[in-house]
Write a structure and sequence with these properties.
Blueprint lengths: L15 E7 L7 E7 L2 E8 L4 E6 L1 E2 L4 E2 L5 E5 L2 E5 L6 E3 L15 E2 L1 E4 L2 E6 L1
Antiparallel strand pairs: 1-12, 2-3, 3-4, 4-10, 5-6, 7-8, 8-9, 11-12
Bound molecules: FE2/S2 (inorganic) cluster (FES).
Amino acid sequence: MTPKEHTSQTLTDTVNWHLAARVEDFPENGGACVYVEGKQIAVFNFSARNEWYACQNMCPHKQQMILSRGMIGSQAEEPKVACPFHKKTFSLSTGKSLNGDTCDIDTYPIRVEEGVVYIGLS
Ligand code: FES
């Protein structure tokens, strides 16, 4: 099934799936930026955890479009990204600022099917 315009079951949880790129377009244990529906979205292939994440590309600290170039890792069980500029860190699962001194970031649902990565936008 190719869920390009998949819509979920409930009205309050409507997600439209947008093609981002192919799996091989993203480095293992790293990220890349995609442009979907007018938004820069950072997509991370966290292959060490066999997981994928998507969040806004803009770091809220100094409004830099850079998070896709950040280093990913884990804090306890929490997957996180560290901005390459000033090392502010954010949860990739919830978007919460892990430093507590910057705004949280938006995260997006992500799915991989038949070698293609899709981002869910409301
Ligand atoms: S711009 Fe990202 S931590 Fe400062």
